[in-house]
Amino acid sequence: MSKSFDDILAKLKTAGRKKLSVAYAQDEHVLEAVKLAHEKGIADAILVGDEAKIREICAQIGMNPDDYEIINETDMEAAATTAVGLVHDGKADIYMKGSLDSKTFLKSVLNKEVGLRTGRPLSHVCVFEIPGIDRLLFLTDVAFMPYPTLEDKKVIIEYTVNVARACGVDMPKVAPLAAVEVVNPKMPVTVEADELTKACERGEIANCIVDGPLSMDLAIDPEASKFKPGAESRKIVGDADILLFPDIHAGNLVYKTIVRLATVKNGNILTGTKAPVILTSRSDSVDVKLNSIALAAVVAEDLKSGQL
Questions:
Q1: Is residue 17 located within the same domain as residue 69?
Q2: pLDDT value of position 283
Q3: What are the start-end ranges of the E strands in 119-190?
Q4: Among 3, 56, 153, 302, whose CB has the most other CB atoms within 10 angstroms?
């Protein structure tokens, strides 16, 4: 089981290099991450964008552009369409956002002719390596689906379980989070969390353990169980792998609190697509982008082997 991003990188050493297709690739942090992924044997890349600007950035960061295929396309939308088409056609395994806005990038993902749409909802998974926690934490959805319904949450769990299993977590524990651990009809989030738990018990949600509603402390801190009546009978007692948030506000607030107040490693991936999609912010560090490539690569490997 991968307990860190170093473990994920080690796991990738036994897999073949994946191929990245980068849309509008003239972004310094993206190219630095691509360079590191190449050097670590994780992935090679096809860089689609303004070739002159790409080569200029390569010179600045000590990156040899001759190690990569470059497709010159100076128009942003055309670059995105070309880059996503490479993944759609099987010429690349992973689609990555470069120096373009998220709206244009997502438009290309959903392109009916050459995109990666599946007809199912899209969701977002963030993976954290946090000091003091002996495993990776998978947070969802913190950036994409605003107000997931009960059925949406079942889909989100399915997607996130697949990502966790690709990272080596065979039977991930899923905590549908709420403010309390009891079902209260006046708090719909708790009712839905209970429904998800029962759905898993009926076999409608596979390859995981769901136990909710759970408060955040009981989900991630074993010590919290000492102060929670009945906690010893729960399936999850401070050892959740997946934190399922009730809506984007809760998820995004927790995500930003962690990244601003703690020294952590994290990576992100968009799910619900035909191939792994890396949708990071321009402000994300090189490390976040590299970790996201590694995360996408293990998912791509499982897709290739038929595990997902």
A1: yes
A2: 84
A3: 123-129, 137-140, 173-176
A4: 153
Residue 267 lies in a domain: no
Give the residue among 208, 142, 153, 203 at the shortest CA–CA distance from 176: 153
Round to whole Å and give the CA distance between 188 and 138: 23
Domain count for the chain? 2
CB 124 within 8 A of CB 292: no
Regions in the chain scoring below 50 on pLDDT: none
For residue 165, what are the contacts with CB-CB under 8 A and spacing of at least 6?
172, 207, 302, 307, 308
Give residue 157's domain range.
123-261
**What is residue 122's predicted lDDT score, i.e. its pLDDT?**
96
Report the pLDDT value the prediction gives residue 195, as an integer from 0 to 100: 98
Q: What percent of the chain has pLDDT over 90?
A: 88
pTM confidence score: 0.95
In 3-state terms, what secondary structure has residue 44? strand
Tokens of 19: 């191929």
Clarify whether residues 213 and 95 are in a common domain.
no
